[in-house]
Amino acid sequence: MITPHKPIDIGWPLVPLFRYIADIENNAQWHSEVIHAHWITRNENRVGCTYKEVKLINDEEVEIVLTVSEFIPYQKRTITFDNKVSFTIQFEAVTNDWTRLHLSVSERENNHLAQSVMNNLTRLKNMLEEVYC
Asked: What is the model's pTM?
């Protein structure tokens, strides 16, 4: 079962925001623990493609392999890791210049992942709105 969380509105148009989030090379800019990310399989967002993130956790570099498990351009993207934990971000155009992101996290995961993703989305919001506005 998937648990939905509070949506977050970002002052960016839907298409460029979706492209920015879907480009894993941007992860290090807005994910607080990510040092870098790169594709393991084809360099694209498609169901089944995998990528690796290197994170700095407690002063140690940790590699995590993630899989794109759902990808609907400009609508939805689901990422799975450890073959069980997943999170989905759905994109909704509120206006031409504002996009609402809806986060859902698999029930197997504790609140740490949800809080981490929400913190990163808030970080992304602040970063992008500073540039765009």
From this structure: 0.87
Q: Give CA–CA dist 110/102, Å, rounded.
A: 18
pLDDT digits (tens, 9 = 90+) for 74-107: 999 999 988 777 889 999 999 999 999 999 888 6
- What is the token pair recorded at 13? 């148009």
2-132 CATH pick, 3.40.50.2300, 3.30.530.20, 2.30.29.30, 3.30.1490.20: 3.30.530.20
Q: Give 14's Cβ-side CA count (13 Å radius).
A: 16
| Domain boundary assignment for the chain | 2-132
Nearest residue to 65 (alpha-carbon basis) of 48, 40, 47: 40
Are 122 and 3 contacting, i.e. CB atoms less than 8 angstroms apart?
Answer: no
Q: How many CB atoms lie within 10 A of CB 78?
A: 19
Following DSSP, what letter does each residue of 35-76 receive, concatenated?
EEEEESSSSS--TT-EEEEEEEETTEEEEEEEEEEEEETTTE
